[in-house]
Amino acid sequence: MYEALRAVLRRRFADADEIEIHGLAVIAGGYSRETFRFDAHILRNGSREVLPMILRKDPPRESAILHSDRQLEHDLLERLRRHTSLPVSESYLVERDPATFGEAAMILQRMPGSGEVSALFHGDRTEEAEAVATQLCEYLAQLHLTDPALLNPDGRLDDPRGVGIDVSSWERYMDTTIEYYLRSYDDFAFDPVPVFRDAYLYLKHTRPRPLPLRVVHGDFNPANFLYENGRVTAIIDWENAHVGDPREDLGWLKLMDLLSNTNIFGSVKAEGGFLGLYNKLTGFGITEEEVNYFQIFTGAHIGVPVVSAVKRRIEKKHLELLHLYLTQPVLVSELAFTQLLGYPNPLAGAQP
Predict the structure, then answer these.
(1) Three-state secondary structure call for residue 18
(2) Residue 8 lies in a domain
(3) H-helix or E-strand containing 37?
(4) 67 phi/psi in degrees, rounded to 5
(5) Residue pair 52/39 in contact by the 8 Å Cβ criterion
(6) What does the DSSP 8-state code read for residue 77?
(7) How confident is the prediction for the chain on average, in pLDDT?
(8) Which residue(s) pair with 107 in the sheet?
(9) What 8-state DSSP symbol labels residue 70?
(10) Residue 201 lies in a domain
(11) How many CB atoms lie within 10 A of CB 344?
(12) Are 233 and 147 within one domain?
């Protein structure tokens, strides 16, 4: 892999006299891509520049959880850097030829900061936690106020999964997305209680009011940002970005805030909390009830490819161990859906 990295980086840094790769190592975590860290030493005219980098590589197609496009992610990152002040990595290049790294890949700037959010939101670092959570809210509002035409000029974020999503209006977007969820249920209908199908039908019949469609991150959760000294230093993992309802990012963040045992929503003090500050910045006037609806909606958007991947592993279409591990968050999300849908709790009132 060292020589492959040097070869592709020579395309990006054509004026380099030499390129050295140091400290190549796997980064643990993340379900959908294979990720490595390394430092590229760029030698020019006797001087040395050290650039911290990330290699994000697609897994083999048969075991992939989410099929996404590295070129599309690269282009979105560059547009975010051009049209917003969100802290995102520079994407140096995309290598689409699977002969180079085994699958398509991209090389990104490795951003500074820590991803250890539990340590931030549990303990005595309340002022830093408030500052980070407030800035996350401000960045999310900025993303949702950015003209979609600037971030999606070619329309490739309209339906990046190629599943028939129609963004010609909010109503058509909701119709076609929920239809996608219901079609997909037949591919993974192995739950003994059809909670997921019930959730999708709930989405169909209890829709909130329309909002303007925007480019959304699609996986805005406590694992997808870095921070340092009370500042958000990076928002990462944009592979699930798409044109959608801004409340999707709020709903997913709220759900994962709970499941991850962080406290991002509760750490914002300005304007009465995260949602109050977001509403002041955007003018959207979103209610708690709408956020709760979109906890299920975005849980489905993230969950459909994950549950489908688990089903393929159960049927032994591949033997990846990761997919067995993913049964745990699938079961947790199913339990979360029952609570959001108001199912009776069989353990309520039980003695410890």
Answers:
(1) strand
(2) no
(3) strand 34-44
(4) -85, 110
(5) yes
(6) H
(7) 91
(8) 55, 93
(9) H
(10) yes
(11) 7
(12) yes
- C-alpha distances out from residue 179 to 106, 158, 308, Å: 32, 16, 16
Q: For residue 141, give the nearest of 234, 73, 220 by alpha carbon.
A: 220
pLDDT tens for residues 169-200? 999 999 999 999 999 888 776 666 689 999 99
Q: How many residues does the chain have?
A: 352
In which residue are the tokens 């909390």 written? Answer: 273
Residue pair 94/70 in contact (Cβ under 8 Å)? The answer is yes
Residue 77: how many other CB atoms lie within 10 Å: 21
**Orientation angle between helical segments 170-185 and 195-205, nearest 10 degrees:** 160
Kindly state whether residues 84 and 139 are assigned to the same domain: no
- pLDDT tens sequence across 221-258: 999 999 999 999 999 999 999 999 999 999 999 999 98
Task: Report how far apart the first and last C-alpha atoms of the chain are (Å, whole number).
Answer: 54
Residue 175 to residue 210: CA distance in whole angstroms: 12
Question: What SS3 state is found at 172?
Answer: helix
Domain limits at 28? 23-109
The answer to whether the beta carbons of residues 138 and 280 sit under 8 Å apart is: no
For residue 99, the one-letter residue type is A
Other Cβ atoms within 10 Å of 145 Cβ, number: 15
pTM check: above 0.85: yes
Nearby residues of 119 by Cβ (< 8 Å), 6 or more positions away:
125
Report how far residue 200's alpha carbon sits from residue 186's, in angstroms, rounded to the nearest whole number: 12
∠ CA 322-328-329, nearest 5°, is: 95
Per-residue pLDDT, 128? 95
Do 93 and 141 sit in the same domain of this protein?
Answer: no
- Give the domain-ending residue among 59, 76, 109: 109
Our count of domains for the chain comes to 2
329 part of a folded domain:
yes
Amino acid at 343: Y
Average pLDDT of span 113-127: 88
